[in-house]
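Lab notebook, design round three. We kept the backbone fixed and only want residue identities now. Task for the bench partner: fill in a sequence for the structure below.
Input C-alpha cells:
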C-alpha cells in the first residue's frame, strides 16, 4: 500500500448503503485504499461484506458511526478491519480491540484525545475537524506529537495537503468526495473528485 493512498479515508454515508459497493469500486480504482462504511443508514453491514468480497486484498474496509458493542461484532463478522466512532466509548474500544480490529474513536479536545489514546486505540479521529481548522491540529500536535490523528468532517479537497503537512496521519473525506452519488450515480463526477483527492494527498 503506497504511503499517500493510506493517508486517505473515504467515509461513505447515505440514508441507505445501496450505492456503496459501486461507489467504493470507483474510489478504489482511483487510488483509495481505506474505505469506511458508516452504519448510520440502512444496509451498512451488507455493504461492508460486499465491498470486502469484491475489493483487492490491499483495500482495507471498516465500519463507521459505530456506537454499540453489537455493531462492532456485526462489522467484524462482515469482514471489517477497523471501526470508527464519533466519540470515545470504552466498551466499543474494548470489544474492537478484543477482535483484533483497528479503532479510531472521535475526540474534540486535548483531554478527549489523550483519554482516547490511553484506552489503547490505533488512532484518534479529530472531529469535527473543519470547524476546528488546521491551526487547531497544529496546536494539539505540538504537545502531543506521538498521537496519530485523523481529522474528519468539513475538509475540502484543496486542503488535503495542508492537513497532512500539519501532521495528520490521514484525512477522512465524506461528502466532499462522495457528493450526491447515492442519488445521481454520476460516475464521472465521482471519479474526478476521487482522482483530485489522491493527487492532493500525494503532493
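Proposed sequence:
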Amino acid at each position: 500500500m503506497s504511503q499517500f493512498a493510506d493517508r486517505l479515508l473515504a467515509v461513505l454515508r447515505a440514508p441507505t448503503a445501496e450505492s456503496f459497493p459501486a461507489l467504493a469500486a470507483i474510489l478504489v480504482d482511483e487510488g483509495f485504499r481505506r474505505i469506511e462504511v458508516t452504519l448510520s443508514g440502512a444496509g451498512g453491514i451488507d455493504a461492508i461484506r460486499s465491498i470486502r468480497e469484491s475489493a483487492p486484498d490491499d483495500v482495507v474496509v471498516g465500519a463507521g458511526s459505530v456506537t454499540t458493542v453489537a455493531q462492532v461484532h456485526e462489522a467484524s463478522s462482515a469482514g471489517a478491519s477497523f471501526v470508527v466512532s464519533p466519540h470515545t466509548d470504552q466498551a466499543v474500544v474494548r470489544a474492537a480491540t478484543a477482535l483484533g480490529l483497528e479503532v479510531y474513536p472521535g475526540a474534540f479536545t486535548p483531554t478527549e484525545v489523550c483519554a482516547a489514546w490511553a484506552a489503547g486505540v490505533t488512532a484518534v479521529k479529530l472531529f469535527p475537524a473543519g470547524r476546528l481548522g488546521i491551526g487547531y491540529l497544529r496546536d494539539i500536535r505540538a504537545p502531543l506529537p506521538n498521537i496519530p490523528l485523523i481529522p474528519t468532517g468539513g475538509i475540502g479537497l484543496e486542503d488535503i495537503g495542508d492537513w497532512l503537512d500539519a501532521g495528520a496521519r490521514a484525512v477522512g473525506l465524506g461528502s466532499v468526495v462522495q457528493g450526491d452519488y447515492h442519488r445521481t450515480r454520476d460516475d464521472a463526477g465521482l471519479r474526478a473528485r476521487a482522482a483530485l483527492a489522491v493527487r492532493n494527498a500525494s503532493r
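Keep this in mind before ordering anything: The mean pLDDT is 95.
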